[in-house]
From TrEMBL:
Broad EC category: hydrolase
Lineage: Bacteria, Pseudomonadati, Pseudomonadota, Betaproteobacteria, Burkholderiales
Similarity-based family: Belongs to the peptidase S58 family.
Domain of life: Bacteria
Keyword Protease: yes
Name of the protein in question: Beta-peptidyl aminopeptidase BapA
Gene: bapA
Organism: Cupriavidus yeoncheonensis
SUPFAM superfamilies documented for this protein: DmpA/ArgJ-like (SSF56266)
Key words of the record: Aminopeptidase, Hydrolase, Protease
Amino acid sequence: MEQVTPPVIGTLPAGARNSIADVAGVTVGHCTLDQGDLQTGVTVVRPHAGNPYLQKVPAACAVINGFGKSVGLVQVEELGVLETPVALTNTFAVGAVAQAQIREAIAANPEIGRTLPTVNPLVFECNDGYLNDIQAMAVNGGHYEAACTAAGPDVESGAVGAGRGMSAFGVKGGIGTASRLAGGYCVGALVLANFGTPESLVVAGRHVGSELAARLAAPAPEPEKGSIIMIVATDAPLDARQLRRLALRAGAGLARTGSVYGHGSGDIALAFSNAYTVPHHATEPMPAVALLHESRLDPLFRAAADSVEQAILHALWHAVTLRGRDGHARQALLDVMPELRNPT
């Protein structure tokens, strides 16, 4: 397959893979459904290789625009930790994937819901109903399990996993990932891109939306009704409050691509650190961690914004033209604007 590379965002160096998996210990797995009208899937981000229920990681979310149907955000906001992997899927599959997460946690920790507290599943969603027969509710627990089994350090982008049926800027969207090194730490991002109107697209500061809309023969501009999920990981020692500040900077990278966080758009960011873990059992000591000083956060903020913007471009550059439900189709951006291939 031809290798295509989007413009490089910012001046910070990328990690070795230019993906969220450059944060040591983070792995990603996809399960893709590609069966005629069924164009959907599941993507899983694992923060570390251990038991996420017993070894929680600090985390925080930032709801930039809350037109979404995710599950688990309230407890993350309150307690500031993750206790399952992070799952991405389509809107109508949230319940099935959440149940699969609960079953996975119980299998690893049989006393959950008995002598142990219940578990907080964390599932994010975007609506892939244009290309996927979302009413078929085809995603099940086995697909979540397959994505978990497939999790590894090599992260595929484009029309894979949860990104299979997603659209962005009137063309094919999907999964994208990137990383940046800053302040002696790594910040990585993974996005599920399903947002934006054609006329609004900006690529590395260049407004290409007008030309894109013209080539797509797009109708008069309509309100933005898509969504994007942005997962930001770091190995910097941050607490939940600092991670919320980091998550908010994902919005800067999103805005640079042309989004205005429209009324009907669900724009949600989650940030976590795997620099340390928080034990579930009160009998185990809490970690004695020297947190990063507030005055040293600016490089990480820049890394979060740049990696999110870069990840969105990777989602667009690695997408493929796809036909799905009832003959609906989305062209890949590079099929519509081939001059964007391999920019210098």
